[in-house]
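quick q for whoever's on today - can somebody do inverse folding on this one?? i tried earlier but teh output was garbage lol. tokens:
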């Protein structure tokens, strides 16, 4: 019987494990894929306070080591369901079942990907999913934003302040983001908008060179050269297996209060990118991890 079962070994989950371990709780962390979460896809992190530069993997390895040093047990298993019987939670994994007094859901969110060849190869080296994280690497350079919703347009506004040019490429014949953002972009000399076009390929052999787009009406293909592209076609929170345990909002995120307590059965906490919030970064994920862990510790005391 664990005191706290944490689902997800990203920055939020591992930080929760560090704090709960230091409070001498018996902690289990379940991870379905990559210890460290999304940040392991980033070769350079320059906005984590106190560290001038590090790779996402370096950060993830240190955080994992820190959680294990505090006594956390780590299992590679995908949590598929949570049930509660009396005061005891059972987290059902694909490989085993685990019992605990509390559960912290820290399953994060995944950026929707284009699903094209070369996408993995050039992620972090030409293909990015986060202008706040990676925009500074493209100062004075030519970039494209793939997408035309609010996130895409906000990223375009941000990048237009530091990049030489920003090309917004949208699959629909119109942009779906707010008109105010559209007007802001239309008034900028360094922003170009291409509608009714999808990305047909990501080009480059050893290094990223650009993309080929295809017009959805004429089927005409055009090669475009960029220093980098930012894919902003939405995020997918990983909360679906727990929809019977916690209330999900219309976008699949969990609304929670400032103590990381969601609308749910008592004893469940949520932390990190899987929560509704405006800023999804390591700094906000680890803040949630600490908060959720201490709330869970109080619950078990
Ligand atoms: C390419 C890239 C670059 C980035 N660069 C920066 C940056 O420079 N600075 C910055 O601050 N932020 C950056 N971010 C954002 C940052 O990585 C995220 O905000 C942060 O990782 C969120 O942490 P999290 O723990 O909430 O979620 P995640 O990192 O998403 O971790 C959640 C973990 O839960 C696991 N999981 C999901 N479902 C289950 C399940 N059912 N069972 C078990 N495990 C499960 C996932 O596999 C994952 O490992 C970047 C993101 C990306 C994609």
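ok took a stab at it. sequence:
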């Amino acid at each position: 019987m664990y005191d706290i079962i944490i689902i997800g070994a990203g920055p939020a989950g591992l930080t929760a494990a560090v704090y709960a371990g230091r409070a001498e709780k018996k902690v289990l962390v379940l991870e379905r894929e990559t210890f460290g979460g999304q940040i392991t896809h980033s070769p350079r992190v320059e906005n984590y306070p106190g560290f001038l530069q590090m790779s996402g993997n370096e950060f993830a390895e240190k955080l994992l080591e820190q959680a294990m040093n505090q006594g956390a047990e780590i299992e590679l298993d995908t949590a598929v369901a949570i049930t509660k019987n009396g005061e005891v939670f059972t987290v059902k994994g694909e490989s085993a079942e685990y019992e605990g007094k509390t559960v912290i859901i820290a399953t994060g969110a995944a950026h929707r990907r284009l699903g094209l060849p070369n996408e993995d190869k050039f992620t972090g080296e030409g293909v990015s999913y986060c202008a706040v994280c990676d925009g500074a690497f493209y100062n004075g350079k030519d970039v494209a934003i793939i997408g035309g919703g609010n996130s895409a347009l906000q990223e375009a506004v941000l990048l237009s302040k530091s990049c030489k040019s920003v090309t917004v490429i949208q699959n629909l014949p119109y942009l779906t983001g707010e008109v105010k953002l559209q007007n802001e972009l239309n008034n900028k000399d360094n922003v170009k908008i291409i509608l009714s076009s999808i990305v047909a390929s990501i080009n480059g052999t050893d290094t990223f060179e650009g993309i080929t787009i295809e017009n959805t009406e004429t089927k005409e293909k055009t090669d475009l050269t960029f220093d980098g592209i930012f894919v902003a076609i939405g995020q997918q929170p990983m909360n679906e297996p727990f929809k019977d345990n916690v209330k999900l909002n219309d976008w699949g995120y969990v609304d929670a209060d400032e103590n990381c307590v969601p609308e749910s059965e008592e004893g469940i906490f949520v932390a990190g990118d899987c929560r509704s919030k405006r800023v999804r970064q390591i700094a906000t994920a680890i803040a949630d991890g600490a908060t959720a862990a201490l709330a869970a510790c109080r619950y078990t005391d």
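fwiw The chain is about 25% helix and 30% strand. also The pocket of flavin-adenine dinucleotide is lined by residues 7-13, 30-34, 37-39, 41-42, 45, 47-48, 78-79, 106-109, 111, 124, 129-130, 133, 238, 241, 272-273, 280-283, 285 (CB under 6 Å). so keep that in mind when u check it
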